[in-house]
């Protein structure tokens, strides 16, 4: 997964834990030296940062003999270096947003085309509710690849008459991510021979679908392990609340229009549901940073309803002490 929050080792995890410093160092130099020994010095340079880490991650997973690898695309999909996997078990596309426009294109349809580049022949794929045109682009990409694409039902459908599913990640937008995760997990379990999670019927090409361009996958009753997994999931730096003395930090990594809107909804619910005292004992400070070619003015405008008292803007360079554990 990428990016990392504090240390580069966060990107390569086994059983949820970043690999140890010893393992990281061992595999880093093993891969680096092997590439250095075999490259064509006249024509080829070493792989760039993200490509190198992707190669290294695959090597780690192979050497450590993992049963299942969950690989997050870096940017886009079609031309991303993670897309070297020819026959994944299942593919998933989460909610689309406008980002990395200089690479992926400046419309949702162009971005959907890039994201659909991960679809593979005969490999089931799932996505969540998208705007109509981008969803049609995903459908067309899937049909080109002869990839069966399904739409995830809302998380409510997995709850049925049972108790509401509790999510460890805050924010209403995480409900669609959770529904997608359930479908991906179900597909893997069925590949392993588990038959108790309902049947995903293949829809013949050309079938007339009522009201939607992509067939709806059936919901199922989540297992106890799935329920616990959704409840225990945490991702540091995303909708995270940290209390430190009299200061409470609300952290999030939102950096697109849609994700900032989701962040504001979360923040208003988590921090602004009570009126601010008038005695000056509470001051609300926005600490903001953005990288790349993002439209910071547009992102900041979305934060106006939060009514911050002060705003602090961070530059895009850091000073790292020798004793720190920074990964870059």
UniProtKB/TrEMBL annotation:
Family, per entry: Belongs to the folylpolyglutamate synthase family.
Domain of life: Eukaryota
InterPro entries, per database record: Folylpolyglutamate_synth, Folylpolyglutamate_synth_CS, Mur-like_cat_sf, Mur_ligase_C_dom_sf
Any one GO CC term of the record: mitochondrion
Gene transcribed to yield this protein: Fpgs
UniProt xrefs under Gene3D superfamilies: Mur ligase, C-terminal domain, Mur-like, catalytic domain
Pathway stated in the Swiss-Prot or TrEMBL entry: Cofactor biosynthesis; tetrahydrofolylpolyglutamate biosynthesis
Enzymatic reactions: (6S)-5,6,7,8-tetrahydrofolyl-(gamma-L-Glu)(n) + L-glutamate + ATP = (6S)-5,6,7,8-tetrahydrofolyl-(gamma-L-Glu)(n+1) + ADP + phosphate + H(+)
Keywords: ATP-binding, Ligase, Magnesium, Metal-binding, Nucleotide-binding, One-carbon metabolism
Protein name: tetrahydrofolate synthase
PROSITE patterns: FOLYLPOLYGLU_SYNT_2
SUPFAM superfamilies registered for this protein in UniProt: MurD-like peptide ligases, catalytic domain, MurD-like peptide ligases, peptide-binding domain
GO biological process: one-carbon metabolic process
Enzyme Commission designation: 6.3.2.17
GO molecular function, one term: ATP binding
């Amino acid at each position: 997964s990428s990016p990392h929050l504090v240390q580069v080792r966060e990107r390569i995890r086994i059983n949820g834990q970043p690999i140890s410093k010893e393992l990281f160092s061992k595999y880093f130099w093993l891969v680096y030296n092997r590439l250095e020994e075999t490259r064509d010095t006249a024509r080829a340079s070493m792989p760039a940062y993200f490509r190198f880490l992707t190669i290294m991650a695959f090597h780690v997973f192979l050497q450590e003999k993992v049963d299942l690898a969950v690989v997050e695309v870096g940017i886009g999909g079609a031309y991303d270096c993670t897309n070297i996997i020819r026959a994944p078990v299942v593919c998933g596309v989460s909610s689309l947003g406008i980002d990395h426009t200089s690479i992926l294109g400046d419309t949702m349809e162009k971005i959907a085309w890039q994201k659909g580049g991960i679809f593979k022949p005969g490999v089931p794929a799932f996505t969540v509710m998208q705007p109509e045109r981008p969803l049609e682009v995903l459908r067309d990409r899937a049909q080109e690849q002869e990839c069966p694409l399904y739409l995830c039902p809302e998380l409510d459908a997995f709850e049925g008459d049972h108790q509401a599913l509790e999510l460890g990640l805050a924010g209403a937008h995480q409900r669609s991510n959770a529904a997608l995760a359930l479908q991906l997990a179900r597909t893997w379990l069925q590949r392993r021979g588990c038959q108790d999670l309902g049947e995903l019927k293949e829809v013949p090409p050309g079938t007339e679908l009522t009201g939607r361009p992509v067939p709806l996958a059936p919901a199922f009753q989540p297992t106890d392990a799935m329920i616990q997994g959704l409840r225990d999931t945490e991702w540091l730096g995303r909708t995270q609340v940290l209390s430190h003395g009299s200061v409470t930090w609300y952290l999030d990594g939102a950096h697109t229009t849609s994700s900032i809107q989701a962040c504001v909804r979360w923040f208003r619910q988590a921090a602004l549901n009570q009126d601010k005292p008038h005695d000056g004992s509470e001051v609300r400070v926005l600490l903001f940073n953005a990288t790349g070619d993002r439209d910071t003015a547009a992102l900041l405008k979305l934060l106006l309803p939060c009514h911050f008292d002060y705003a602090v803007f961070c530059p895009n360079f850091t000073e790292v002490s020798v004793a720190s554990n920074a990964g870059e």
